Structures are given as C-alpha cells and as structure tokens.
Amino acid sequence: MPSSHALLLCFCLLIFTVHARLCGDVECPRSNACCSDAVHGPVCYFPQFYHCAVDRFTPYSQSLCARGDGSCATVCYDAKRYDCVGGQIKERIKQRSPFPFYPFKNSENYSPIIDAMPSMISEQKEMPNLYLLTCRYYIPQFKPHNRATDVPYMVKVLVAGAAGGIGQPLSLLLKQNLPAGSTLALFDVVNVIGVGEDLSHINTHVKLEVHLGDLKNPSNTTELDKATQNLDLAVIPAGVPRKPGMTRDDLFKVNAGIVKGLVESIAKNSPKALIAIITNPVNSTVPAAAEILKKAGVYDPKRLFGVSTLDIVRAQTFIGQLKGQNPAEVKVHVIGGHSPETMLPILSSVSGISFSEEETSSLSTKIKEAGTAVVNAKDGMGSATLSMAYAGARFALGLVKALNGESGIIEDSYVDTSSTDLGVSFLAVPVEFGKNGIEKIHPLPQMNESEKKQLAELIPIVQKNIDTGLEFAKSA
Length: 476
Ligand SMILES: *[C@@H]1O[C@H](CO)[C@@H](O)[C@H](O)[C@H]1NC(C)=O
Ligand SMILES: *[C@@H]1O[C@H](CO)[C@@H](O)[C@H](O)[C@H]1NC(C)=O
Ligand SMILES: *[C@@H]1O[C@H](CO)[C@@H](O)[C@H](O)[C@H]1NC(C)=O
Prior knowledge:
The chain has 13 helices and 21 strands. Helix 4 runs parallel beside helix 12, helix 7 runs parallel beside helix 8 and helix 9 packs antiparallel against helix 10. It binds 2-acetamido-2-deoxy-beta-D-glucopyranose (NAG) (3 copies). The site of one 2-acetamido-2-deoxy-beta-D-glucopyranose has 10 residues, from helix 10 and helix 13.
C-alpha cells in the first residue's frame, strides 16, 4: 500500500476512534451526520451533499436526500420543481406540455413527475476522493430511493407494427413522452430497423429496442418473443389498411390473423401486460384477442382495451370549432362501437354547451364520417394515421400514468363489459385507468331519450360484430 494511503487510513481511523458516534450500529465520523432513513435504516451522510429530509407525506419518517431535495412517501424529489401532493410527486408549475393529453380530469394544475432522483446519483460521484479511498465505510451506504419498489415508474412499452403509417408517428410520440428511463420496443416485419435508427437520435431518456420479425416465416417468433419480454404495455396498430376491392370481412381476417400472432406472444412472455388494440376493425379484433388470451389461460378483462380515442379526439375538435372553444378542454363522451354505424357521441351531456337539433345532427354525422373524410382526402393513399397516432399516444400515456399511480384518468374505451348490466360483451364505455388496467367501468354518461334509443339500436349490431370476432378466434 502506498504510504500516502496508509497515512490517510490512519487519519481516518483517528477520526473514527476520537469522534465516532453511533448511527444504528454504524459509527459516523464527526464530519458525517446520521439519518434514520425510512427505507435504508440509519445511515451516515456527508451534510455537504445530503440532508435528512422530513417526509412531506408521512411527517414522522425521514429520507436521506440530496441537499435541496424533499421527501415524498420515501421518494426524494427536486423541491424546486415539484411538490408532494397526497403522497405523489407533482410538478409545481402549470403543465405546459405540447400534448394536453387529459381533457377529463387530473393534470389541471399538476403533471406527475417522471424522474425525481437522478441528481443524487451524480452528486454521489462527486464525493471527495479522500473519502472514496480511505473512509469508504462512511460513504452513505444507501442506494438512491427508487420508486420502482412500489410502482413501475420505468415502463417497457411495445409498439407492434412500429414501421407502419400509425406505428411510426405513435412511436415518435412515445419516444418523446414516456417517463425517463423507460424502454420503447419497436416490432415490425419490414423497415423497422431504419425507423429505430431514426428515432434513436432523439435526445430523450427512453431506450429503444428494435425487433425485425420474419416476414417470410411468420411461425418464426424469435424476434417477436424478444420484443414481448417484460412488457408493461403493448400497443398494437399492426395490420393492413383496407385496399380497393377488399371487403371488411377480408380485412378482418387478415388483421385478426396478425393480431393473433402478436397476442399469443404477449400471452406467453408477458401475461400481465396491458394490451391496447388499435388494429381495425376494433369491434372484432378486440373480442378475438380476448378469446386468444382465454385459450392461453391468461385472460384478464381489466387488461385488454380497444382504442376508440380518435372518436373522442374528433368530437372534441369539431365541437370546439363549432362553439369557439379550446378543443382540448371540451368534455365529451363517445360510446358504443368504433365504427360509423355503432359509435354514439353523447352531445346532450357536454358540460356547459348545448346544441340545436340541427347542430346535433350535423356534428354526429361529421364525427361518424370523419374516418371516411380522411380516406377520401388521401385519395387512395391510406386512412387516418397521424390523428390515430396522436389518439393512441394519449391513450397509452394515460395507461402509463395510471401504472405510475396517478388516479382520475378516464377515457372511453372499447372493453369487456360482460361484468356490467349493459347486455353486450364489449362496448366503448367510460373507463377509469388504474395500476392493473381498468380500475373501474364508470356508469354511462347521462343520455336523453333520443340518445338512449340510438344506444338500444346499436347494441345488437355491436354484438353481431363481437360474434364474428369470437368465431374467428375459436376456429383459428
Ligand atoms: C428466425 O428468426 C431469427 C431472427 O430473425 C433468425 O436468426 C433465425 O435463423 C430464424 N429461424 C428460422 C428457423 O428461420
Ligand atoms: C338530445 O340532446 C341533443 C344534444 O343536446 C339534442 O339536440 C336533442 O334534441 C335531444 N333530444 C331529446 C329527445 O331531448
Ligand atoms: C365491424 O363493424 C363494421 C361497421 O359496423 C362492420 O362493417 C364490420 O363487418 C364489423 N366487423 C366484423 C368482423 O363484423
């Protein structure tokens, strides 16, 4: 051992023997203080870098945090930017996200914090060398508090069909908006390597995993099985758009086949993952997916969603335009099925806005026919992809926020309603998200007589679509 090190060690031992004081069963030197950390027990710490923060949620407990940080339900957070509200870390300033994702509730004043902690890790590295070399014992013996112990704040999200028209912009929005430290897995059978390389240059702390499936041999699921490991959420826009000459039934058979392969892999590798299906026709692909999950023995109706969010996004936009209001703040439900014949915008319960008979009729038609309007305007070049990606991202990020413990996020979604008294096994209804997917299916919004009548008429149509989906899955 070099003599200077020996000297430092002596110096260190000297401090230890002369000035040591007890901190649990550890003795701290005089330059250290002691903190009874709620998670790690008594730890010595160096007050130049850390402080023992009184917890803002449970005031009788303390956490060792970086100086200037607060403690919220044992999690350290940057007290300059965040507050502890009811045990959750919330951003202080009014949200200024370019994507005002949640029109219904929550985030009026707060958005959840994504990564409260990394400051501690870097400050720990800045410990003077003297301590690192000689008094290793006195360096705080703790790992930074990690929210992952109670909530999965770094999620893994899969986009299946990531190179497609919806998949690409959807992956972009998720790369931009997922919590720091999350993983975004991209799967497709064509072009996904390039999409992944392109997205990988975006400077957000979201890791990318890129998986190119075997187009020629769909039964080779090697890459898909890698993509579906450890998933918290799978978003599925994969599928083919309807081509000229293709009936809706043809479309369904092709797309249901694609969804089947994906869902089987998810069932095998991440049976607890939430699954959000965008692939059309949603009225049938979602019930088909449910049947596939049942066959695999892992079906949980709380974890499977059909994304009908674009219907709500469109309704918000058209109502906002018509009435001169901010579309992001329009509160409207669109329930029923996810097709022109079956969707039902509930205009009578839009708060603070009333509509004439004429407005109701033209708005309803505009909302229902919006998909066709895009198909016509694109003139043979496809259907809605950008707005669908936006809606899919809003839905997926809502689920991720709920996985992180945020409450009060409600979206209309096409889900299993067999546990309700609606008399149909799947329907788009108001759903509150939670840590296990569906926290609660809310009662249908208030409807007036004509809306009630329309609902009663569309339910048998939806049930017929569901049966088609079930038949496919049973025979497949
Ligand atoms: C399956 O796909 C993987 C990855 O693309 C490839 O390495 C492997 O050779 C393929 N196996 C078969 C049997 O085709
Ligand atoms: C139901 O509500 C819509 C939208 O406000 C309105 O236009 C329609 O006249 C109402 N129908 C009945 C029967 O009250
Ligand atoms: C889904 O709904 C649309 C519109 O109602 C319908 O044309 C289509 O046939 C349905 N899908 C299936 C597979 O039944």
